[in-house]
Amino acid sequence: MTKRTYIKIGVVAVLILGFAGLxxxxxRGGSEYSSNIADVxxxxxxxxxxxxxxxxxxxx
Length: 60
Known about the structure:
Elements: H1 3-27, H2 37-46
């Protein structure tokens, strides 16, 4: 492999580890997520002025 390939692999690895660390820091000690849409809406509206991300996951 070339030096450029090793650099690309290193950058991807650092990004993955960074996001994993951020997620662990961000979600540590929080309450469980609710599947009730009214709770999600209330929490979403409460955090006005903050960066918000809604992720919808489907098992299929």
